Amino acid sequence: MTQVNESLLLIDGHSLAYRAFHALPVENFSTSTGQSTNAIYGFISMLINVLRDESPSHVAVAFDLGRQTFRLEEYPEYKAGRAKTPPEFHPQIDLIKDIVVAMGITVVTKEGFEADDALATMARMGTEAGAQVEVMSGDKDSFQLSNDSVTILYPKRGVSDLNRMTPAAIEEKYAVTPVNYRGLAALVGEKADNLPGVPGVGDKTAAKWLAAYGDLPGVLENADAIKGKVGEKLRDHISEVERNFRLNRLLDDVDLGLTYADLKWGEGDPSELSSLFDQLEFQALGKRLSAIFGEEAVPEEASGPAREVSVETLDVPALLEKMADSDVLALDSDARYELGHGDVRILAVSGAPDEAWVVDLAEAGEADVSKLSSALRSKTLILHSSKTQIKAWRSLGLDVDDVAGDTALAAYLLVPDQRSYELQQIALERAGIELSDAESDSGQLALDLESDQTAQTHGHRAAALLEVHDILAAKIDEANMSQVYRDIELPLVPVLARMELAGIAVDEAGLSGLIDEFTKQANASAELAYEAIGHEVNLGSPKQLQTVLFDELDMPKTK
C-alpha cells in the first residue's frame, strides 16, 4: 500500500538532454579521447539537483526510440522540418541511460510511442497509487497532464531554472484549464511538431473560444456562430484542428510492461557509476552524487582527490612575509564598483593551489596599504574580472596596474557567447572545482572576517584561480589566441580601468543649448503639421495620427 510520503518523479529524457546539449557549449565539454559530454554533464547535473530538491521515492526517465510512431503513420509531416540533430548529441544518449540505470533509476522506452506517452501512462499509475507526481519536461504538451496530483516541472531556461506548472499556474498563464490546454494547442498549432493551427488565431483567441463553448469539440460544433474573418478561417481549417487534437493527446494507457512498484528508486550500482564517471572524466559531479547517495555511493577515485586548501587570516605585515616567496599570486576580493564609487574590504591572496591568506583591509593603515601595493606591483598577478577589482582597490589606495591573467577574460575569449562568466561556473566547468558563492545565504556580501566561512570562501576562490587559469591559458594557446590575450586584451585592462575612473567631461552649457535648439525645431515642426492638418492633435498618439492621416487627409492605407 502506498505511503502518504511517496512521490513519483518522471523525466522526459530526450527533451531535457537536448536542452542540456544547447545550454552548455559542446566545445567546452569533452574527454581526453574526444567524447563530447556537454549533454551528459548538463542532464546528470540537472538530475542530481532535482533528486536533491524533490526527494522522490519513485523515479523514471523516459526516452524516445525514434521518429517512427503511430502519429507519424497518420501524419507523415509530423515533426518534419526540425533542424538536423548535431552529430555530437546522439552518442551521449546511451551514456546518459547507462548512468541513470547505474543510479538505480528506471529507464523506460516503448516502440511506436513517444516518451510523452510513457510519461502520461506512468503519471496515471502514480496517481492511482496515491502518490504525488512531478513530470519534468520541456514539452508543453505535458501541461495537459497537470491536476491536483500532478505538477509539471517546466524548464524556463536551460535545464536548471524550473517553473512549477500546477493547474492554477497553467490557467493563470494561458487562461485555460490543463484539460483544455490540448484544445488550445490544437487551435493555435505547434511549430515544434509541425502541426499548423488556424491562421491568425493566438492563445488569447483560442482561450476565449474554449471558455465560451467549454472545450474544443464545443468550439467546433459552434464554429458557424463565430463571426468575422477569424471564424471563417476556423471553418476552413476544422480538419487540421481535429487532426492536431488527435495527435497531441498523450496516451495514458500504453502497455509499458511495468507497474508503479517497479519505479521504486533503487540503490544503483556504485562501482558502475564510478567506472562511468572515470570514463567521462567527471570529478565534481561525483562529489555531488555522494551527497545524495551517501559517502560510499561514488568511490573516492570517481570524484577525484579531496581539495584541501589551508586558509589563514593575517594582518598586512604577516601577509607581506608570506607573499615574499611567491612570484605568481592569485587574488580574490569582495570588490564592488558602481556609479563611480568603489568598495573593498576583504582581500585573499594565494601563492599555491593548496594555500591562501586573507586580510581585512579595513583594519590596515595607510602605510600598510602602500606597502601592499608596492609588493603586489612586483608580482605576477592572476585575477577574475580584474578591471572591476582594480577600480575598487584604487578607492582604498591599493594601486595595481599590471595583470598577467584574468580567468573571466580568458573564458570570454574562448566562448564569447557564454551566458555567465562567474568564477563558480568557470571553475566547475573547466577544472571540476566546486566553489562557494562570495555572497552569503541572504544574498548580501559578507563584510567582516568574524565568520571563518567568509575567509574560507575567498581563500578557496583565490587558490582555485591558479589552477583554473593554467587550464584556460592552455586552451588559449591551443586556439592560437595567445597574442590576442597577452598582448592586446590583458594590457588593455588597466588602460580601460584608468579611463573609467577618470570618466568623461561633459559640457553642461553646451548640452543645455542643444536641448533648447532641438526643442525649438520640434515646436516649429509641430506648428507646420497643425497648419497642414487644420487643427492641433497629439502628434505622439498613433491613434490620433491614424484618424488624421487616413480619415481626414484620405491618404492611401498600407500595411
Brief descriptors of the model:
alpha/beta, 559 residues, six-stranded mixed beta sheet
General description of the model:
It is a single chain. This protein is about 50% helix and about 15% strand. Strands 3-2-1-4-5-6 form a six-stranded mixed beta sheet, sandwiched between helices. A six-stranded mixed beta sheet has the order 9-14-13-10-15-16, with helices on both faces. Strands 7-8 form a two-stranded antiparallel ribbon. Strand 13 and strand 14 (about 355-360) form a beta hairpin. It starts with 6 loop residues before the first strand and ends in a 7-residue tail after the last helix. It is flat and about 85 Å long. It is an alpha/beta fold and about 550 residues long.
Measured by DSSP, the beta-strand proportion falls in: 5-15%
Helix content range: 40-55%
Structural class: alpha/beta
Enumerate how many helices there are, as a single number.
23
Widest sheet: strand order? 3-2-1-4-5-6
According to DSSP, the number of beta strands is 16
**Main sheet overview:** 6 strands, mixed
Shape: flat
* Low-confidence residue ranges: 295-306, 440-451
Q: Overall mean pLDDT score? A: 85
Distance between the termini: 65 Å
> In angstroms, what is the radius of gyration?
31 Å
